[in-house]
Amino acid sequence: MARHAFTELLNNAAEHSGGTQVTVSMRQTPLQLQLLVSDDGCGVFERIGQSFAIDDPLLAMLELSKGKLTSAPEGHCGHGLFFTSRLADVFDLHANHAAFQCRAWENRPWRAGRPVARQGTSIYLAIALDTTRTLDGVLRAHSVDAGYRFDRTVVPLHLLGGAEQALVSRADARRVAARLGEFRRADIDFSGIHDIGHGFADELFRVFPRNNPALQLVPVGMNRDVQAMVASVGPAMAAGAPLSA
């Protein structure tokens, strides 16, 4: 896993950052293997903004969290950063005055961190020496058929809605649905979302599936109010979906 993470992060910095220098540091403590990769390029969120016209780091992180996002589709598939973040127990991403953290033991895959004021992108990860996680297991967990085809993802809606903001508009739903047609299954994670509007639910769970019949949308982490709204536009969507506290 360490070799995979090192290779992916180094190649990502060398080929996408637009910088002139990459610094790599690796060390082993009694409990963890730690890796830091930093470049002096434009920053990953600036690169996403240039390629996809997304100028909000939160929205950029939402797209990164889905996977298959690359600014050079002719030569890359957008798997590297996605899978590397899921191999690690601790994963921190710093770029363009924004920071996001992923912790393997937390229910929410991403949360905002404290940004580091520096040029380029810095990625820090740590893997516990006694981890039971494997590269094979991570790859298979994101395949509908438990193979190696990357066709299953999770969309963490708290990156779009925040702790107190309701998701109400069809525009919000279209942001969530962007590029999901590239997958066979997408779990829509409502953890931390307390309320949604009818327009949002209708666009995401009725209109979008009608135009993408090969994609299975699975809402998870809903509270009772959100589940009721989802059920109002597509009862089959909410049936059996786990409720959050």
Shape: globular
CATH architecture of the largest domain: 2-Layer Sandwich
Unreliable parts: none
Number of helices: 10
Structural class: alpha+beta
Structural overview:
It is a single chain. This protein has 245 residues and is of the alpha+beta class. The chain has two domains: 2-137, Heat Shock Protein 90; 151-238, Transcription Regulator spoIIAA, CATH 3.30.750. 36% of the residues lie in helices and 21% in strands. The protein has helices at residues 2-16, 44-52, 57-66, 80-87, 135-141, 158-161, 170-177, 198-211, 224-233, 235-238, and strands at 22-28, 32-39, 90-95, 98-103, 111-112, 121-128, 152-156, 185-189, 216-220. The strands form two sheets. A six-stranded antiparallel β-sheet has the order 1-2-6-3-4-5, covered by helices on one side. The chain has a three-stranded parallel β-sheet with strand order 7-8-9. A hairpin with a 3-residue loop joins β1 (22-28) and β2 (32-39). α1 (2-16) runs antiparallel to α4 (80-87), α7 (170-177) crosses α8 and α8 crosses α9. The longest helix has 15 residues, at 2-16. The protein is globular and about 50 Å long.
Which key terms come to mind for this protein?
single chain; 245 residues; alpha+beta; Heat Shock Protein 90; Transcription Regulator spoIIAA; 2 domains; six-stranded antiparallel sheet; three-stranded parallel sheet; 36% helix
Indicate the topology.
Layout: H1 2-16, E1 22-28, E2 32-39, H2 44-52, H3 57-66, H4 80-87, E3 90-95, E4 98-103, E5 111-112, E6 121-128, H5 135-141, E7 152-156, H6 158-161, H7 170-177, E8 185-189, H8 198-211, E9 216-220, H9 224-233, H10 235-238
Parallel strand pairs: 7-8, 8-9
Antiparallel strand pairs: 1-2, 2-6, 3-4, 3-6, 4-5
Helix pairs in contact: 1-4, 7-8, 8-9
InterPro entries: DUF4325 (IPR025474), HATPase_C_sf (IPR036890), HATPase_dom (IPR003594)
Protein name: DUF4325 domain-containing protein
Domain Histidine kinase/HSP90-like ATPase: 3-90
